[in-house]
């Protein structure tokens, strides 16, 4: 069993999934499974997006006008909804990124510097 398998996965904090979806879509349109896979791979397998959380988040982002969706065919030849970032979504991504960076910096100051080794 590898170290990665024995490590406990991190749980997403409230509100982070929306930000991660918006950030993932900055690189181009993607279907839901592809978004989940990209988040998992980019986080070096630390974050696992559950389908029960992903699809309601995609619907919420679409209702807010931050992403748009259209039907297409996935690489395995299945019908899938492909999501794209809208102009409003790009603006929201900038706002949300700034907020999360401020939050992470504030928490980092409270926790103190990371210890080596």
The CATH topology assignment is Arc Repressor Mutant, subunit A
Are there runs of 5+ residues with pLDDT below 50, and where?
none
Give me the number of helical elements. 5
Mean pLDDT: 89
Report on the architecture of this protein.
The radius of gyration is 16 Å and the shape is globular. It contains five helices and three strands, in the order ααβααββα. Strand 2 and strand 3 (79-85) form a beta hairpin. The two termini are 22 Å apart. The chain has a three-stranded antiparallel sheet with strand order 1-3-2. Helix 2 packs across helix 3. 54% of the residues lie in helices and 14% in strands. It has one domain (10-111): Arc Repressor Mutant, subunit A (Orthogonal Bundle). The model has no long low-confidence stretch (mean pLDDT 89). By secondary structure, the protein is α+β, with helices and mostly antiparallel strands.
Set down the secondary structure blueprint:
Blueprint (H helix, E strand, L loop, with lengths): L2 H4 L9 H10 L4 E2 H11 L8 H13 L3 E7 L5 E7 L1 H25 L6
Antiparallel strand pairs: 1-3, 2-3
Helix pairs in contact: 2-3
For this entry, give a set of tags.
117 residues, alpha+beta, Arc Repressor Mutant, subunit A, three-stranded antiparallel β-sheet, 5 helices, 3 strands
Put the structure in a nutshell.
With 117 residues, this protein is of the alpha+beta class. 54% of the residues lie in helices and 14% in strands.
